[in-house]
C-alpha cells in the first residue's frame, strides 16, 4: 500500500538528512515531554488546591484530555509553517512520534530493563548514575558485579517450591483445564444459541460477565462459596446445596484436603467470566458457514451431531485456535481472581501472584523480574505468529 | 410428515431448554448478589438470599409463657398436646404442620408455636448502599430500632476516582493511537515498516514486564499515587492494541476519498481531523469500550501505581480492601460489588454492538 503526500523531489543533501533526523527524534521526544511537563504542572496545582473533589476530578479530566489534543495542534502548526519539503519530512513524526515514545517508555524499554534487573540479587542493580561508568568505571563495575547473580534467579524460578506450585497451577489448571472448559462452554452456547429464537437475549446475558471486574466477580463467587458454621442455615448457594444433599460443607477454595483440586473452584469463576468472549467469536464464525453445506448434509441424512463434528468444527477451526490462544495468554497472566479470592494461599498461587508478591511485597526485585521475563518468554511464540501474519497480510511492502 | 414436525418441535424445546438452563446458571450468581445487596444486614448473615423468593417456612402463630402455665422447665412439659423436655423443645419439636420451639434461655425463655406457611422475607431497603456510598460516619438503624454510627466506605469518592482515572485513560490513548494509525496508514517516513512491526510485537507483551521499571521511573518523577501516573501507564499499556485496531480500520478507508481531499489542497492534519476521525467513529467506539472496561475493571495497575493512599482509591481497590478486611460483611460487599458493576454494565449493554465488533476485529490485550 502506497502512502499519500507531497513527494520530496530533490534528493536532500547529507546535512539536510542529519538535521531532519535530529528534528524527527526531537519531535518524537519533545511532544510527550512538553505534554508531560504541562500535565505535571497542572497536577501540582490541582493537588495543592482544596476545591471540592468533583471539581478537581472534572478539571483533571479536561486538563488531561484537552492538553494532549492542543499539543498535537500546536506542533502540527509549527511543522506546517516550515517549507513544504520540511513539512513532508517532519509531519509523520508529529503523528507517529508520541505513540512510539510512549510504547518505548512503557513497554519496549521496560522489557530490556526488567531483563537487566533479573540478573541481579534482591535489590536489583546498584542505584548509580550511568555516567559513572565513564567517569569512574572501576568503582562502577565493581559495584555492579557485587550485586550481579547471573542466571541464578532463573534457576530459582524453576526450582523454588512456591514457584513450582505456581507453574503447576498455571499449566495444569489454568491452561490445561480452564482454557478447554471455556472454549467448550463457548462453543456449546454458540451452537445452541444459533438454533434458538432467543439467541440475542441469551448471548447478551451470557456475555454480561465480560463487563464485570475480576474483583467484583470474586465477591460474587465468594458469596456462592460462603460457608456458615455447622447448624446455622447455609447462606452460600453451593454449601446450601451440599448440605441439602446431606454432604459436608466447606469453604471450597481453602479446602486443602482436596488440594490441588481446590483450584477448580477458581477455574469455575474464570470460565464464567470468559465463556461469553469465546461464544461471541464462535457465534460469528458459525454464522459464516454457508447454509447450503449444512442443508446438503441434512439431505444426505447426517445427524446434528455428525454435522457438528464433521462440518462445523472443521469449518471454524481457525477461530477455535485464535480463541484458545487468546485465553491461554489471558490465563497465563491471571492475577486478580486468585489474589482477591485466596491471596495465593492454600496452594492456589499462580505465576502472576508470585510475581506480585516477590516484586512488591518481598521486595525481591531480581527474582520478581525473572518471573516477569519467564511470562514474556511464554508469549513469544504468539508474538512470532502475529508477526508472520503481518508479513502475509502484506499491508506493508 | 407428522413425526418429522413433532421431532422438530421436541428439538426446539430441547435446545431452548438447555440454553435457558445455561443462562440461568450464568445469571444466578449475579442475582444472588443483587438481591442480597438490598437485604437487611442481619438477614443476609442468618438466612440465605433465596428466602426473598416465596418459600415454605416456619412462622410463629402463638407465643406461650411456660411460667404462666405453671410448667416445670426441668421435666417434661405438655403444651398444645405435645409433651417434650426443655432440650427437645430447644431443638424444635415437629408434629404435623406445627412445631414447638423454645426461644431464649431456660429460666426466662418462651415457647413458640409455629406453622409452615408460604412466606417471603422481603424486607428490602437501601441502607447497605447508604453505608458503602457515604464517607466518614453513617447513622444506621439496627433491627431493634436503635441507631449506631459507623464509618462509611466512601464508595462515592471511589466512583469519582474511577471516573477520573478511566475517562482520560480511555480518551488519551485513542487520540494518540488515532494519530499514529493515520501516520502509519497514509504517510511515508523512514522506519515506517520497522516501527509498525514493533507495535505488533508489543501486542501480547504482558504488562507485568513493565511494572517494576515504570514504578521506579514514577518514583523518581514523584508520580506514584497520582492520576497523571496511572493515565500514562494505562495509555502506554493500551497503545499497541489501539494503534493496531485503528490502523486496520483507517488503512481500509477508500483511497479515493483521501486523494480527492488532497487535490483540493487539504493538509494531513485537516484530512485527519475533518475526514478520518468522523469516518472512524465505529472503530474508535469499539476500542473506547474495550479500554473503558479494561481500565475501570483493572486492579493490578491501580494497586501498584496508585498505592495505598485512600484518597485516590478506585472502586476495585475499595472493594478488594473490604474483601480483605471484612470478608464476612456481606451487606457491604454485595452493595459495593453492585455499585462497582453498575457503570460498566450500562456502558456494556448500551454499546454492546461496538464491543462485539471490536472483539471480532481481533482484540487481544497484552
Write the layout of secondary structure elements.
The complex is a heterodimer of chains A (397) and B (366).
Chain A: H1 14-48, H2 53-80, H3 84-118, H4 132-135, H5 137-147, H6 152-157, H7 161-194, H8 199-207, H9 214-225, H10 237-244, H11 264-287, H12 291-299, H13 304-315, H14 317-332, H15 336-341, H16 351-361, H17 365-393
Helix pairs in contact in A: 1-2, 1-3, 2-3, 3-17, 7-8, 7-11, 7-14, 8-11, 11-14, 16-17
Chain B: H1 2-37, H2 41-46, E1 55-64, E2 77-79, E3 82-84, H3 86-91, E4 93-95, E5 98-103, E6 110-119, H4 127-133, E7 137-141, E8 147-151, H5 155-186, H6 192-202, H7 208-221, H8 227-250, H9 255-263, H10 268-279, H11 281-297, H12 300-305, H13 315-325, H14 330-350, H15 352-360
Antiparallel strand pairs in B: 1-6, 2-3, 4-5, 5-6, 7-8
Helix pairs in contact in B: 1-14, 4-14, 5-8, 5-11, 8-11, 11-15, 13-14
Task: Give structural notes.
The complex is a heterodimer of chains A (397) and B (366). Chain A has helices at 14-48, 53-80, 84-118, 132-135, 137-147, 152-157, 161-194, 199-207, 214-225, 237-244, 264-287, 291-299, 304-315, 317-332, 336-341, 351-361, 365-393. Chain A is mostly helical and 397 residues long. The longest helix of chain A is centred in the first third of the chain and has 35 residues, at 14-48. Chain A is globular and about 80 Å long. Mean pLDDT of chain A is 84; it is low at 5-10. In chain B, strands 1-6-5-4 form a 4-stranded antiparallel beta sheet. The longest helix of chain B has 36 residues, at 2-37. Helices cover 60% and strands 12% of the residues of chain B. Chain B has helices at residues 2-37, 41-46, 86-91, 127-133, 155-186, 192-202, 208-221, 227-250, 255-263, 268-279, 281-297, 300-305, 315-325, 330-350, 352-360; strands at residues 55-64, 77-79, 82-84, 93-95, 98-103, 110-119, 137-141, 147-151. With 366 residues, chain B is of the alpha+beta class. In chain B, helix 1 packs across helix 14 (330-350). The mean pLDDT of chain B is 83. Chain B has 15 helices and 8 strands. The interface between A and B is large, with 122 and 125 residues.
Amino acid at each position: 500500500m502506497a502512502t499519500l503526500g507531497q513527494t520530496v523531489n530533490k534528493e536532500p543533501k547529507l546535512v539536510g538528512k542529519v538535521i531532519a533526523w535530529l528534528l524527527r527524534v526531537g519531535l518524537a521526544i519533545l511532544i510527550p515531554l512538553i505534554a508531560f511537563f504541562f500535565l505535571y504542572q497542572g497536577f501540582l496545582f490541582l493537588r495543592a488546591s482544596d476545591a471540592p473533589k468533583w471539581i478537581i476530578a472534572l478539571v483533571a479530566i479536561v486538563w488531561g484530555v484537552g492538553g494532549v489534543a492542543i499539543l498535537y495542534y500546536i506542533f502540527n502548526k509549527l511543522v506546517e509553517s516550515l517549507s513544504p519539503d520540511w513539512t513532508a519530512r517532519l509531519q509523520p513524526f508529529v503523528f507517529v512520534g508520541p505513540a512510539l515514545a510512549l510504547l518505548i517508555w512503557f513497554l519496549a524499554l521496560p522489557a530490556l530493563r526488567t531483563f537487566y534487573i533479573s540478573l541481579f540479587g534482591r535489590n536489583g542493580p546498584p542505584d548509580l548514575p550511568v555516567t559513572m561508568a565513564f567517569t569512574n568505571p572501576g568503582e562502577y563495575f565493581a559495584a555492579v558485579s557485587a550485586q550481579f547473580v547471573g542466571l541464578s534467579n532463573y534457576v530459582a524460578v524453576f526450582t523454588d517450591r512456591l514457584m513450582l506450585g505456581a507453574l503447576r497451577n498455571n499449566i495444569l489448571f489454568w491452561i490445561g483445564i480452564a482454557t478447554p472448559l471455556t472454549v467448550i462452554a463457548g462453543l456449546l452456547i454458540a451452537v445452541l444459541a444459533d438454533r434458538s429464537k432467543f439467541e440475542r437475549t441469551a448471548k447478551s446475558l451470557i456475555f454480561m460477565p465480560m463487563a464485570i471486574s475480576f474483583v467484583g466477580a470474586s465477591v460474587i463467587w465468594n458469596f456462592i462459596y460462603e460457608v456458615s458454621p455447622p447448624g446455622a442455615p447455609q447462606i452460600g448457594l453451593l454449601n446450601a446445596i451440599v448440605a441439602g444433599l446431606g454432604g459436608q460443607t466447606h469453604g471450597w477454595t481453602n479446602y486443602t484436603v482436596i488440594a490441588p483440586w481446590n483450584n477448580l473452584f477458581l477455574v469455575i469463576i474464570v470460565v464464567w467470566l470468559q465463556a461469553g468472549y469465546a461464544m461471541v467469536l464462535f457465534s460469528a464464525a458459525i454464522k459464516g458457514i454457508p447454509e447450503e453445506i449444512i442443508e446438503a448434509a441434512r439431505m444426505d441424512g447426517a445427524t446434528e451431531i455428525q454435522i457438528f463434528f464433521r462440518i462445523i468444527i472443521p469449518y471454524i477451526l481457525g477461530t477455535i485456535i485464535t480463541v484458545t490462544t487468546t485465553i491461554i495468554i489471558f490465563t497465563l497472566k491471571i492475577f486478580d481472581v486468585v489474589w482477591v479470592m485466596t491471596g495465593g494461599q492454600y496452594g492456589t498461587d499462580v505465576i502472576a501472584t508470585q510475581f506480585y508478591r516477590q516484586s512488591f511485597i518481598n521486595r525481591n526485585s531480581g527474582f520478581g523480574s525473572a518471573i516477569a521475563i519467564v511470562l514474556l518468554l511464554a508469549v513469544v511464540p504468539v508474538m512470532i505468529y502475529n508477526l508472520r501474519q503481518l508479513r502475509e497480510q502484506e499491508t506493508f511492502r | 410428515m407428522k413425526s418429522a414436525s413433532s421431532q422438530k418441535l421436541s428439538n426446539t424445546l430441547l435446545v431452548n431448554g438447555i440454553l435457558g438452563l445455561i443462562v440461568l446458571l450464568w445469571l444466578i450468581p449475579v442475582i444472588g448478589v443483587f438481591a442480597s445487596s438490598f437485604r437487611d444486614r442481619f438477614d443476609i448473615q442468618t438466612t440465605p438470599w433465596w428466602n426473598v423468593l416465596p418459600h415454605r417456612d416456619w412462622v410463629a402463630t402463638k407465643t406461650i409463657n411456660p411460667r404462666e402455665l405453671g410448667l416445670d422447665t426441668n421435666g417434661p412439659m405438655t403444651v398444645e398436646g405435645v409433651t417434650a423436655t426443655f432440650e427437645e423443645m430447644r431443638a424444635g419439636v415437629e408434629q404435623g404442620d406445627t412445631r414447638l420451639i423454645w426461644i431464649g434461655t431456660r429460666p426466662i425463655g418462651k415457647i413458640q408455636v409455629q406453622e409452615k406457611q408460604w412466606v417471603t422475607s422481603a424486607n428490602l431497603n437501601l441502607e447497605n448502599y447508604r453505608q458503602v456510598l457515604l464517607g466518614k460516619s453513617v447513622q444506621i438503624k439496627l433491627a431493634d430500632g436503635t441507631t449506631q454510627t459507623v464509618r462509611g466506605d466512601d464508595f462515592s469518592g471511589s466512583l469519582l476516582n474511577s471516573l477520573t482515572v478511566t475517562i482520560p485513560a480511555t480518551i488519551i490513548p485513542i487520540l494518540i493511537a488515532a494519530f499514529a494509525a493515520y501516520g502509519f496508514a497514509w504517510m511515508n517516513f523512514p522506519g515506517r515498516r520497522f516501527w509498525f512491526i514493533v507495535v505488533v510485537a508489543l501486542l501480547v507483551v504482558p504488562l507485568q514486564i513493565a511494572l517494576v521499571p515504570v514504578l521506579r521511573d514514577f518514583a523518581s518523577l514523584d508520580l506514584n499515587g497520582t492520576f497523571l501516573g496511572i493515565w500514562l501507564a494505562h495509555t502506554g499499556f493500551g497503545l499497541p492494541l489501539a494503534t493496531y485496531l485503528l490502523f486496520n480500520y483507517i488503512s481500509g478507508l477508500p483511497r479515493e476519498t483521501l486523494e480527492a481531499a488532497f487535490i483540493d489542497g487539504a493538509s494531513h492534519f485537516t484530512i485527519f481531523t475533518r475526514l478520518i476521525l468522523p469516518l472512524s467513529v465505529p472503530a474508535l467506539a469499539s476500542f473506547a469500550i474495550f479500554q473503558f472496561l479494561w481500565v475501570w475493571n483493572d486492579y493490578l495497575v491501580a494497586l501498584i501505581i496508585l498505592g495505598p493512599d485512600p484518597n485516590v482509591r478506585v472502586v476495585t481497590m475499595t472493594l478488594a480492601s473490604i474483601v480483605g478486611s471484612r470478608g464476612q460483611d456481606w451487606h457491604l460487599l454485595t452493595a459495593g460489588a453492585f455499585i462497582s458493576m453498575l457503570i460498566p454494565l450500562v456502558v456494556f449493554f448500551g454499546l454492546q454492538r461496538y464491543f462485539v465488533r471490536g472483539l471480532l476485529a481481533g482484540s487481544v490485550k497484552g
